[in-house]
Amino acid sequence: MAVAVSMHPMSASAAPTALASKYDKLVTDDGWKIELRASELTVNPMSNIANSFASREGWVSSRVGVLITPASSNRLPSQPVNTGVLEQFLLVGCQIDVSDGATFGLGSSFGPQANVTISGQPGASIGVGGQLTPSISSKIMPGRIAEISLGQKTLSTNRASIRVRRVHICQGTSGSAHRRT
Questions:
Q1: Strand 102-117 to strand 56-70: parallel, antiparallel, or no bridges (unpaired)?
Q2: How many Cα atoms within 13 Å fall on the side-chain side of residue 169?
Q3: pLDDT per residue over 82-113, tens digit each?
Q4: Is 55 inside a domain boundary?
Q5: Could you write out the DSSP letters of every residue in 119-132?
Q6: Residues 1, 19: contact at Cβ < 8 Å?
Q7: Buried/exposed code over 36-55 (b: 16+ C-beta within 10 A; e: otherwise)
Q8: CATH of residue 55
Q9: How far is CA 91 from each of CA 30, 110, 162, 168, rounded to the nearest angstrom?
């Protein structure tokens, strides 16, 4: 079960956003019905606490659950379920990858200057002048999508659930994202 979250630039006091519950089911070839449900989905995006223009942070809460039952009361599944794993993960994406960093430069020129005017009123001037030119460059690449595990549970019965509350997620300019615990 995946929950996709987009972290947009927002103020640090952004209100939590509740997302709609999600439900999916499938029937396996050997006759089991698997039902997945994601609920209590809340995202609270915020600006990076270091005030970085290129990073985002947020808090995520959710609950996912699975239920495995025979698909039909008329036909028992052909194979027993011996084991199963429920994993809740988050997909986080960034639009631009600048993980190679940025280069900051400063160009300058200083020295004597001479100006001669020959039209109108002829004249000449001599002086000292200078120029300072800043530059910034970066290699920009398409962004990436990162997958962050929020929890994993091995099924010991036909049902299991995982609940997370206020998990802190950080995403930087490299497209990488991680869970802070």
A1: unpaired
A2: 33
A3: 888 999 988 877 666 656 666 666 667 777 77
A4: yes
A5: SSS-EEEEEEEEEE
A6: no
A7: ebbeebebbbbbbeeeeeeb
A8: 2.60.40
A9: 30, 52, 17, 14
